[in-house]
Amino acid sequence: MYVSKKVKITGAIIAILVLVNAYLLLRENDIILKKYYINDAHFAVTKDHEKILSTDAIVTSSNEQFIAAPVQAVDEVLVTEGQTVDVLGELVLFKLEETEKEIARLESDLAAYETELEELKSVVSQLEIVSTETDSTSAIDSNTTRVEDILNLTLSIELGIEQGTPTVEGIAIIQRAIAETERQMELLSSRITQLSENNMLTSPVDGIVKEIVLEGDSIIFNIQSTDKKLVTYVTPKQWQEVEIDQMAKITLFKGQDNELTIDGSVIEKQQIPALESIVFQEMKKHEKINVNETVYEVSIQLSEDISDTPIGTLANADISVNEEPHSLGVDNEWLVQIENEDDDKAQYIYMLDGNGNTLLQPVEKYFVYKSRLNQHEALTMDSKGSEELEETEQPTTPRIQTVNLKAESKPKVVKEELIDVAVISGPDELYPIFLDGTTRNLSAPTFLPYPLQSFELSHIESDWRLILKYWLK
To answer: Which residues form a coiled coil (predicted)?
Structure first.
């Protein structure tokens, strides 16, 4: 059959238009708004997110006391290694003629503590003035708070206060040092009183005589307090996250009949790498430390007495290193970075607006932690998944259009796995639906190839007759 040249040209033009139209519709980043098939989405709910540092810990004494006495002053040693002693319990009987010398030495120590106490109180007063002049989030910095006039070098090193430490935290550290100094002064005063009355050197704490050592012209008593604490070891990266006063949950005898969970708080983190202490050796023995990695010691004070728990007992410590109330959790890989953005830290995420259209929402990322987050389960309105929904928080209508296809078109249920969950600021939407990081045109409509909820007979209420009457009309 003969086809005219005019028809051929017309057909070619139509074919070109069809191909161009198909390309514009189907290409990844087309300029024509098409409906996007939502392959992966997360139905998010605002809640309080917490980042937990889980680590192994070990029970040890809260502190060790070293008490020295000059050998020539000692008339009799009254304790042996391994013996339990009470606070102000007798350790040494002094010679009468040497008692006054020992009292003079103790009084000299007491005077030094008094000087230190005055200095600490002065530092706190000046830091409190600085804190009121600025805001509560200000940091100790030589340029803004004249820290060189407030803290001398020796004091700042001993207390572990670094430049950049928040002022409020610095005040708390110094106040703890004040309390400890006042406690030592009380003990010294009691020892001086007892020594002057009965020529006795006494223990400053309830504890156990761990060791008695003759060193040079002195006899030294190493007394391990009966008060217990937990010690754990963290990596340099974890060290940056751990702060004084962070809360912790301690589990002793996990999985046993006498399992015990106790609250605690971080009281100290060492500034120098961990040394080969007894606790360090115990952790190595149980293979809880990587000997090829630098670690730092962190101490946790317990809210309950565990004096019946022996030193060296292993425990689990969960330290709350970060917390963000009223925030949202989403797969960290879903966050997108816009090219040529001035702020390198700016974060965005694709989500749906109230009409089910795509938009790119700017968010603030607070922190990232490992957790389970099943996006497929989150798609169903009646499934709580890992983001727990309260019954009163269920949305009334979905924002994603759905169509009925064959059952095999539904995505496969993915087994929950630990992923990096980014904790982000929440948009104004009450029930935000986040999308993965696939590039999409903004304001484009979306759909799912299956309903959000499957039909169940329980959906039919007692007025089924009205439904049947409606159908028969």
So the answer is: 96-130, 171-198
